[in-house]
C-alpha cells in the first residue's frame, strides 16, 4: 500500500487498485477503482446488483397450485390479487362477468344433454326450452342479459330438469359447482 499526497487529501492505494481518499477536513471515502477500462468497477456494480436482486427474491413467495379442473386454482390467484393489489380494472370485470355467464350456460347445456340421454320423460311444453340449451346454447350467450336470465330461470323450473338433478347428483359432464348456481335465482337488473 502506498500514499499519494496532494492538497489536503491523502490517497491510499492498495495492490488491487482500490484507493481511499482521506480528506483531512471532511473525513474519508472510497475514491474509485483503478483497473483496465473500468472492468473491475463494472464487475463490482454487477455484483452489487446481484446481491440486491437476491435479497428481493428471498422476500418473494412462490406457490405451485396443483389440482383438477374446477378445483379453484384460478380462484385463489384472483383472490390473492384482490387482497394484495388494486384489484381488477373495468375491462377485466366485464370479462369476468362474461366468463361467469358462459360457465352457467355451459353447465345448463350439460344438464339438458343429460336429460335427453336418460330415460326421463320430457313433457311437450318443456322440449323447446330444453332443446334451446342442448342444441343451441351458443345462441344464448349472444342474448341480452334480461332474456338470458328469463330463459335460465325457465330452465330451472322444468320438471324434467328437477327430476334429472334429483336422480343424477354426480353426472360426469356437469361441473361440481353447478349446485351453487341452482340455489341463487337470477334477478332482473333494475
From TrEMBL:
CC terms in the record's Gene Ontology section: cytoplasm; heterotrimeric G-protein complex
One of the GO BP terms on file: adenylate cyclase-modulating G protein-coupled receptor signaling pathway
Protein known as: G-protein alpha subunit
Record SMART domains: G_alpha
Species of provenance: Oesophagostomum dentatum (Nodular worm)
Annotated PROSITE patterns: G_ALPHA
Classification via InterPro entries: Gprotein_alpha_su (IPR001019), P-loop_NTPase (IPR027417)
MF-aspect GO terms: G protein-coupled receptor binding; G-protein beta/gamma-subunit complex binding; GTP binding; GTPase activity; metal ion binding
Residues engaged in binding Mg(2+): 74
Keywords for this protein: GTP-binding, Magnesium, Metal-binding, Nucleotide-binding, Transducer
